[in-house]
UniProtKB/TrEMBL annotation:
Gene3D superfamilies (alphabetical): Homeodomain-like
Protein name as annotated: (African queen) hypothetical protein
Keywords tagged on the record: DNA-binding, Nucleus
Stored PROSITE patterns: HTH_CENPB
Location of the HTH CENPB-type domain: 59-130
Provenance organism: Danaus chrysippus (African queen)
Lineage of producing organism: Eukaryota, Metazoa, Ecdysozoa, Arthropoda, Hexapoda
Subcellular location: Nucleus
Amino acid sequence: MAPRRTFTVKEKVDIISRLENGENNVDLCKQFGVSHSTISTMWKNRAKIMQCFESKSLKIKKNRNPTHQDIENVLLVWFKAQRSQNVPISGPLLQEKANHFARQLGKTDFKCSESWIYRFRQRHDIVVGKVCGETTVIIG
């Protein structure tokens, strides 16, 4: 039995476009070393895959939605507003804001952790680094 193969969203979109262009399912199965049902499932779920392709990172392999979508949406809007003003945002500040928004939304069961912030950053392709135009000041 062949080892399990997972495809990124970009790879799935490439396979779907090849199927749309008339390429044979059997040929794709042989090329990628997967079963017929794997390619057929991609074809069946093409609407979801295309939606994910248009809205998210191309490197993800599973399309998981966060458990607290409302907090995430508000935090992302706030983050984008801050970044548009070139305000540097750190992990602890994101955590503090997420907890603040959770209290505002009446979520008593939410406690923002470092791992939640890490996954939030991954889902939205947020990289840690300097904001454009920010300089480092060395005192000494």
